[in-house]
Amino acid sequence: MVSKEIRMATRKSAKPAQKALSRGAAPARRRKTSRSLLDTIPIRTIAVVVGVAGLAGLGIALFGPRRFQDEVIRPIENATLVPLAAAVAPQADRVWAETRPWRDHVARLLSSINTEEVREAIADRLSHWIDRLR
Q: pLDDT, tens digit, for every residue of 31-42?
């Protein structure tokens, strides 16, 4: 018996064959089509900020500035800032009182440094360094 090879028709893929990358070689990057100015992040961010500000301005103009302050700003302020200030004020007073000796010490150090002798010594050192650099 004679064996016959049967060859089947194969379909080629639509993609062209790619060469194998050599080790350490970076793949070739395709250039993108020209980018629009609006594709950059800062421009998009600016556009969003301007849009939000415009909508807020339109809302205030339609709603009325006094009514907006009475119905939006003050309730938000009362819900967030007033309790926060009430919670922080006693701690801030305590910390301010506890740091009084340290603040006095720093004030004494600064006043002892700010004398004519110290200023003359600093001026001499600076003039010495300027002379060395020339």
A: 666 666 667 778
